[in-house]
Amino acid sequence: MKKPTRGFTLIEVLVALVIVAIALGAGIKAAGALTNNAERLAQVSAAQWCAENMLTELRLTQQRVNIGESPFACEQLGRSYSGKLRVSPTPNPLFRRVDADVADDEGRPMLTLSTIMGG
Fold it and tell me: Taking the C-alpha atoms of 95, 85, 53 and 39 in order, what is their torsion angle to the nearest 10 degrees?
């Protein structure tokens, strides 16, 4: 009487290895995406701080904002950002719209923060 063999065949082992390899590849790709998203979030947060600081400075100094554009620069978290303040009129002549456009050090737009100020 022949005893039945125990264990896995080579095909079963190869299929299991392929499944594990696909799962590990997907996990590595997901981890890379999370890392990229975290870096992007840090950059956008720092750019937002730059824009908020510029708009807050305008409010605190109570400067009269003239219609037009003016550049500004900022450094946050060791990164340099360039920006542009755009002041435009509103339907009410007592107020002005102020947009702070912030770009990274390579000139790629990061965000625009807007507010209304007395003009």
Answer: 130
